[in-house]
Predict the 3D structure of the following.
Amino acid sequence: MWWHHSPARPTPRAAATIMLVVVAVAAAVVGSLSVVALWPPAARSRLFTGPSMAAKTSPQGTLAQLALTVQPFTTGLTQPVQLSSAPDGSGHIYIGEQSGLILVAGADGRTHAQPFLDMRSQILSGGERGLLSMAFHPNYKANGLFFVSYTNMDGNTVLARYRVSGDPLRANPASAKEILLIQQLGGEHKSGQLAFGRDGYLYMAVGDGGLGSGAVYGQRKDILLGKILRLDVDHTSPGKAYAIPPDNPFVGDPAARGEIWAYGLRNPWRFSFDQATGDLYLGDVGESSFEEIDVLRAGSARGANLGWDVYEGNLCRQENCWLPGMVRPVVTYAHAGGLCAVMGGFVYRGARDPALDGIYLYADYCTGRVFGLVAADAKPGSPSATRLVFDLHAPVSSFGEDEAGELYVVGYLPGEIYHITAPASP
């Protein structure tokens, strides 16, 4: 869905718990590898060279001492793309498959026989199209509302609202209401990630439309492609099924869309909010050279420009590299050794594993490698130290977080989800 090269077939692995201890050696340090060394001299002069990527420490612990356990949570899925939870105290886990099927599972990983919602008849699925994301309203326990983004039969992106039925394990298909329709210009780079912020507004990532090197919409503020949108889904404006928050950065600008919160994005497939700080962590899938992780700090993200299509990572792609106020990535990595497409994850804020607290996890789709960085040390424009923390040996499409803040990794193929833990050292 989001890759540049065909992934290798999954390697066999036992279903038992996989214990992997991070080895603090340079070979396992992807974020500490100099990106300059991966490029010929002609390209090096156009790379942003930030401070040294020396290993950092934090009150939350160090990556070098982190031991992770990956335990099977549920299997038998078909191309799962997201795991989510509802803020209702039920403990239910919701799993979205690319085709448009949303399943509900209990805390034991067992999925219920009937799907929560079946949208397959209205979704164009395949490649980078399909069910894109889902998010539950912060007041879901009282109002039963949740939101989905998907590719409709015309290839356009739809944001829709649904309501749960009288059965808490089933949504009401007849409750569907289209909130926003975004015209697409190509078959790739849909993104569509949905998440509610601390402010109660719905944030939505939209890819640039995927016309290859001709996709130049990231810097255009008169179009919604290549942006993060911020919407008030509890109110409406004239002619809209939502309202535009009055403090959005481009409200009142006749040359810009008021829905835009941040711009300069290519394919921000997955982003998340840090539950402790409200900071937004985002993985933006690159074109042919670099993948990147961006951090937008709470209170300072308004109107952020993340650089595309002038920059891919820290590499300038054009003759004029001047982008005032550009927010530079905290992590970039090159397409080397099979790496191809970044899958943004979460900062762990659960209570079960103190050793993992404050660690941001993200993955590469093609290789299934999962990396970590210390969230408190991540500063935009200052490359963060990262380490390989485990290798799933299979394509990773997403991460998920349950109500308690526990984290899961979603294996796109062969269709398995794993629970991530960091047991205390003996």
The radius of gyration is 20 Å. Confidence is low (pLDDT under 50) at residues 3-60.
